[in-house]
Amino acid sequence: MDKSTNTLYETSLKKPQDVPQVVHLTHLTTPQSIYQIRLWFKSLAADPLTSKWYLWIMWPVTLWSMITTWIYGRTFIVERNTFGKIKAQSWAIPRYNVHYLLKWQRGAINKLIEEAIVDADIRGIKVGEYLNKNGQVYLDKHQKLQVKVVDGSSLAVAVVLNSIPKGTSQVVFRGRICKVAYSIVSALCHKGIKVAAIRKDEYHTLKKCLPTEGGHNLVLSTKFNHEKVWLVGDNLTDFEQSMASKGSVFIPFSKFPAKKTRKDCSYLNTPAMMAPKSFGNLHACENWLPRRAMSAWRVAGILHALEGWNVNECGDMLFDIDKVWEASLHYGFRLLSAPA
């Protein structure tokens, strides 16, 4: 065990233990996202993250907050929740979206995530929901971990699939390929729904991974006359949005919302669910989501703890989509009812 792990262990012995069953590991997005943390401004945190004019006036405070979180250099607790017998916490990594795009920052970020996982394991936390797509790396490095690492992809897939209007026979696909994207396309093709990919590279990447059964339902197309449902992820351009017919609905499958450029179309939120009323202390909005809405990735970790599913979901592993969806409804979580 390395020095950082020893330090975490010694620290955990000195501090009074407030041990949750679930930890949701997140990070800051834009500089203004610091105001979504209740530790700073509760009134601002109670509203979805948007670019407000008066936040520009507060730029000195924003800059000071960025410097403070950078110097602090460790994950910190931003929220404590209760749900039945479950205690949950949200831990934030003191890094912003821009840092994840910088190669020279990847080592530092991965170290912060690894320390958080080891810390959770030392404290006896059962489930950790982590946003890093390479969670398998930490499992391989620390093979005796008792904490279960859950990326929540299965519930994100379930939310997107159940957000598609009933009776839809064809959809358009555009976005960076990831585990969630592949699983959604695979499920739709298996159900006999046509999936039209816009870009050749994404079409060929998906085609290689799809099973023979249903694979013929994935097609390459740039003309859309009847498709009204667009499944979109990262890197969607304004021009590609202009290709959609009037009245289309854009359904994101990634963690970040699409830029809204069409006033004659609808945009759903990123995969999320409304929490039941019994979910306690949920006062701050989770980024751009409405009040009391929780990202599907975060909800998944809570469901794993509630159900006692003693399995990891990270790397290439995907939990049972139908099982996690049924569990979410059983515990009172519901889809967001209206487009964003």
Distinctive features:
alpha/beta; six-stranded parallel sheet; five-stranded mixed sheet; 14 strands; 37% helix; disordered N terminus
Query: Termini separation (Å)?
Result: 47 Å
Biggest β-sheet: strands ordered side by side in the sheet: 8-7-6-9-10-11
Shape: globular
User: pLDDT average, as an integer?
Assistant: 83
Structural class: alpha/beta
Count of discrete alpha- or pi-helical segments spanning 4 or more residues: 13
Short description:
The protein has 340 residues and is of the alpha/beta class. It contains 13 helices and 14 strands.
Write the layout of secondary structure elements.
Blueprint: H1 3-14, E1 22-27, H2 42-45, H3 53-57, H4 59-72, E2 76-83, E3 86-93, H5 97-100, H6 103-123, E4 127-130, H7 135-141, E5 148-150, H8 153-163, E6 170-174, H9 179-190, E7 194-197, H10 200-209, E8 218-220, E9 229-232, H11 238-242, E10 249-252, E11 266-267, E12 272-274, E13 293-295, H12 296-307, H13 321-330, E14 334-335
Task: Report on the architecture of this protein.
It contains 13 helices and 14 strands. It is of the alpha/beta class. The strands form three sheets. Strands 8-7-6-9-10-11 form a six-stranded parallel sheet. Strands 2-3-1-4-5 form a five-stranded mixed sheet, with helices on both faces. Strands 13-12-14 form a three-stranded antiparallel sheet. Strand 9, helix 11 (238-242) and strand 10 (249-252) form a beta-alpha-beta unit. Helix 8 (153-163) packs across helix 9 (179-190). It is globular, with a radius of gyration of 20 Å. The protein starts with a helix and ends in a 5-residue tail after the last strand. The model is unreliable at 3-16 (pLDDT under 50).
